[in-house]
Amino acid sequence: MQKRQLGPCVTYFPQPTSIITSTDISGTANLMTASWVGIVSKTPPTMAVSLNKGRKTYKNITQSGEFVVNMVPASLAVEADYCGIRSGHRDDKLEETGLSLEPAEIVKVPMLVESPLNVECRLSQEIDLGDYRLLIAEVLQIHAAESAYTLDEKIDVRRFDPLVYLGGVREYWDLGNKRADAYSDGKRLIGGKE
Ligand SMILES: Cc1cc2nc3c(=O)[nH]c(=O)nc-3n(C[C@H](O)[C@H](O)[C@H](O)COP(=O)(O)O)c2cc1C
Q1: Domains in the chain: boundaries
Q2: Which end of the chain has fewer beta carbons closer than 10 Å to its terminal beta carbon, N or C?
Q3: Is 0.90 surpassed by the pTM of this model?
Q4: What letter would DSSP give residue 72?
Q5: What pLDDT shows up at residue 178?
Q6: Per residue in 20-37, pLDDT tens?
């Protein structure tokens, strides 16, 4: 495969589209879109998010020590984009988007009603990355929409309909088709060793 060298940059995809909810010291909530977000350990369940130090969200999280990562469904692409181009330093993004909040179970920060998957997080470590900070957080609770479960209690990901962000080309896509079962279909290449 012939390839073109892009140099040191941030072109990489797919990435998740998440909206982080956080609160300032007076309890006012803010929404921020983030794609540099992911689960980074299973034992203990840990999430990492990378935030520019200038974000209102960074200030809120470092003051309160808590946040919620809310998965964005494809139906909210426009609202998510808005939350990624306006700042809580100036704008009330809840008011402008019409999105709504509900209390979380453990943290004081509220979670996004319209998101089918909310992850309650408590900040545990911060790593300096130049203009950015990698925030490492303990996963305290995850809320998954009842409506995404089938009658036989399995998650149907089509009902989550996650919005995929293509970093570098700056486009949002939906999920497309299932291609394989994880931790399973790869075994076909083991060749009789298992
Ligand atoms: C799709 C998308 C993904 C983004 N991901 C991140 C990210 O992971 N980290 C970050 O610091 N900013 C990210 N941004 C930029 C912030 O969302 C943006 O600067 C926002 O205005 C910050 O909001 P706040 O100041 O209210 O916290 C992203 C923006 C978009 C549109």
Answers
A1: 12-189
A2: N
A3: yes
A4: P
A5: 87
A6: 999 999 999 999 999 999
Question: Is there a contact between 68 and 107 (Cβ–Cβ < 8 Å)?
Answer: yes
Token pair recorded at residue 145: 């929409």
| CATH C-level class of 12-189 | mainly beta
Q: Would you say the CB of residue 67 lies under 6 angstroms from ligand 1?
A: no
H or E element that contains 58: helix 56-64
Nearest CA to ligand 1 atom 6: 34
Ligand 1 atom closest to the Cα of residue 170 is 1
* Distance from C-alpha of 103 to C-alpha of 101, rounded to nearest angstrom: 7
- Residue whose Cα lies nearest atom 31 of ligand 1: it is 84
How far is 23 from 108, CA to CA, in rounded Å?
A: 8
**Beta-sheet pairing, 12-16 with 164-167:** antiparallel
Residue with tokens 């920060």: 109
Q: Indicate if ligand 1 lies below 6 Å from the C-beta of 35.
A: yes
24 lines ligand 1 (CB under 6 A): no
Distance CA 120, CA 107 (A): 7
What burial letters (b/e) apply to 147-185, b meaning 16+ CB within 10 Å?
Answer: ebeeeeeeeeeeebbbbbbeeeeeebeeeeeeeeeeeee
